């Protein structure tokens, strides 16, 4: 999981194939806190002993659909037992995504009747980032949607609507995730 902005440049005929897990779903495969690999790269063989062969099979496919099907078969063959905590964390993140009124960790604590420290530990283990970071990320995504839609934007009001104490904190978080200020992004 990358917690900041990242760029990958492909040249010539290179290609990338990635697998995106639902929040909380990678921990049962990894079997250690997802935060331990945040902002890093680890070889797939660290998680799956036979990943090298699977990688060859995926990259040998002629099209994207074949790659997806091959990777899905590999993951299904290595599916760990169901983890009810992973499902609980996924539901919390889905609420963050779908309910724009969630702008603070306290909102989650009240909604899910869970201690803040317990929630932090669950997110550290299953998501790899704090609940606060996840909330901020999705609120910045909301800002991106509004800017991309061309809606008139008063940055101070938008920052307040997204749960920020002030415009400066919002702009700082936006810049960390996107790589430029909201005003610069709107001009592009």
UniProtKB/TrEMBL annotation:
Pfam families linked: DUF6597, HTH_18
Domain of life: Bacteria
Keywords: DNA-binding, Transcription, Transcription regulation
HTH araC/xylS-type domain mapped to chain residues: 87-188
Protein name as annotated: HTH araC/xylS-type domain-containing protein
Top-level taxonomy: Bacteria, Pseudomonadati, Pseudomonadota, Gammaproteobacteria, Lysobacterales
